Amino acid sequence: MAAGIPGSVRNTNPGWLKERHADFKNRSEHRQKLRPPMGEQMQVDLGEVKIKNLQGIPVKLWFITFVLSHSRYKFIHWQDRPFVTKDVIDAHELAFVYYGGMTRKIVYDQVICCLRVKTTAT
Predict the structure, then answer these.
(1) Which of the four pLDDT bands, split at 50, 70 and 90, describes residue 1?
(2) Residues β-bridged to residue 78
(3) What are the tens digits of pLDDT across the range 13-23?
(4) pLDDT value of position 37
(5) Residue 69, C-beta contacts closer than 8 angstroms, at least 6 positions apart
(6) Which of 15, 55, 74, 117 has its CA 20 to 30 A from that of 27?
(7) 44 φ, ψ to 5°?
(8) Contact criterion met (CB below 8 Å) for 67 and 42
(9) pLDDT tens digits for 58-85?
(10) pLDDT score at 119
(11) From residue 76, how far is each of 53, 84, 85, 119 by CA, in Å?
(12) Could you give the C-alpha distances from 79 to 5, 37, 88, 113, in angstroms and in order?
């Protein structure tokens, strides 16, 4: 299993936003007020990305992200195959270890209902 690593998928440049929007500070303060208290909520999302490996061959990677709703602190777990239920459970356990605990609530994106389930023939 691939190890999870902290990361960010945000590419926003705050300096650019401040230049373009005079009320940037007010919106940031408003957004902060809407965030749940620390330890209350975590958001989980699954995704996939296609990149080129060192030989220039396109390969697909799958990831699951965990974002603490209050601090926006992120944990991303990558793997080279689609997620099955066991992979998602293992990734949750890695995230909880990384964060040093778990939140009271976990909010899942609708994609999570589309996990592949491995069945065994009897």
Answers:
(1) very low
(2) 63
(3) 556 555 655 55
(4) 77
(5) 35, 36, 40, 41, 42, 43, 103, 107
(6) 74
(7) -125, 135
(8) yes
(9) 999 999 999 999 899 999 999 999 999 9
(10) 52
(11) 19, 16, 17, 27
(12) 11, 31, 11, 19
Tokens encoding 89: 């459970």
User: Burial of 87 by CB count in 10 Å (0-12 exposed, 13-18 middle, 19+ buried)?
Assistant: buried
Instruction: Provide the CB-side half-sphere exposure for 103 (13 A, CA).
Output: 22
Distance CA 122, CA 112 (A): 27
The predicted pLDDT at position 21 comes to 59
Please name which of 86, 83, 67, 81 lies closest in space to residue 9, comparing C-alpha atoms. Answer: 67
Rounded distance, CA 39 to CA 41, Å? 6
In angstroms, what CA-CA distances link 82 with 3, 20, 95, 106? 15, 40, 18, 22
Instruction: Flag whether the pTM goes above 0.85.
Output: no
CA distance 40 to 21: 31
